[in-house]
Amino acid sequence: MIPRKAFSIRLGWLGSPRIRNLNIRWSSTTPTVEGTSSPAPAKPAGSDSSAPSRDPVQLYDHLVETGVMKNDPYQRGVLQSMEQMYLNLKMYQPPEISANSSGNGGFFSKLFGKKSTGPLPPKGIYLYGDVGCGKTTLMDMFYRTIPSHLTKRRIHFHQFIQDVHKRNFHLHQLHGQDFDAAPKIADEIASEANVLCFDEFQVIDVADAMILRRLFDILMSPSHGTVLFATSNRAPDQLYENGIQRQSFIPAIELLKARNEVVYLKSPTDYRKIERESQGTYFFPPENKSLDDVRQAATNHIDNWFKLFADTGDVEWDRDLHIWGRPVRIPKSVKGRVAQFTFDELCNKPLSAADYLEITSNFPAIVLSDIPLMSVRQIDVTRRFITFLDAAYESHALLAVTAEKPFEHLFNDSVPGLSEELSRDVDSDADFLLESNMFSGDEEKFAFARALSRLKQMSSKEWHQTSSLNFD
């Protein structure tokens, strides 16, 4: 385990134990995870690395005409900003950056390192809005139109943060804990991509907040010239709201607002929850019954889906998946296809976001049994469950589960007023979570609302038909 160091304005404090495991290589379109057989999946709209032939408006029109997207007036309202960013990028000549532009991180490097001189890079876009309104789709569409003379990276924000911590850990192993890693990490990132596309930008941890402040200050300076396109559920001024030492993060928020056009996608539609034919991968007991009351049916559900996902592969029991030399136990699996866990095995263990990303990168299908009712008093377990769902969604994993209740009714507690909140009809809308007292912080509310939206999409036949898992 990587110990968390006492943090300061420099990066010597990095190495949070919750993000210690991911080992990412950056490729031409998307990062890959070392130890896996395939790249970390990107959204289809962002996976095209060929030279763009259309600008954002032309591409949107084409996707609507061919039935890939539905014409949405709210999304069209964002296209003007995307078009302007595209035109600015066509004319942009970024500074030349090497992986060691800022020197070796020592005293003289800090004193005489590369200065932030020259013209500012073009403004990027910070696109925020409610869950499922099409932010990621628009970002991935824009990714395809980025002019071919620029390098680009599209990455989920969870993965980006973990990669930064990994780089920091290795640099401190090489150079000692007093090494100022921020300039070196910024050099590496800027040399790999002129345009960074972040999906699901969020800040929930003081360590992440401090490193982002330092990195953004370097990356978006004239010397490095990195241009950002980010999606988020939160407006910039709401990032890291009520967080520890938030005042120290305010400069990063102001920089985000100064170097990006902040655009609100005010769409009433959650595209993930549009009714789609279900694949039948989720099993819930009938009303007034528990999983124990229907145990045989629940067991059959899990066994049948495991067999389908496994195909003809050999079943392994209690396999260890080694992540940075630390074993993570996989109770039942077929290599390269499916892993099976109970909820207790997956969410009651001290696993991190990086662990879940590594699991879903190695196994394109996950079978998860016995998801219980959850309590607001079990916030760590709840956060792990949400983090796992984020990893599964971002990896485009297939998910088969058994749970005590449908997901939108999983929370049960004796907290005054909570039962009334839970009794509301939320089958078609998780927005009530944003005003509830079910979580201690706003970020968890947004995260769970996002998870409910994604679970709806992941249960559809359409999701399964676009999986990388071959059932032949």
TrEMBL record:
It holds the Pfam family AFG1_ATPase. One of its GO terms (molecular function) is ATP binding. Keywords: ATP-binding, Nucleotide-binding. One of its GO terms (biological process) is protein quality control for misfolded or incompletely synthesized proteins. SMART domains: AAA. Residues 29-55 are annotated as: Disordered. InterPro entries: AAA+_ATPase (IPR003593), ATPase_AFG1-like (IPR005654), P-loop_NTPase (IPR027417). Residues 29-39 have a biased composition (Polar residues). Residues 121-268 form the AAA+ ATPase domain. GO terms for cellular component: mitochondrion. Belongs to the AFG1 ATPase family. PANTHER family: AFG1-LIKE ATPASE, ATPASE N2B. This is ARAD1C31394p. It comes from Blastobotrys adeninivorans.
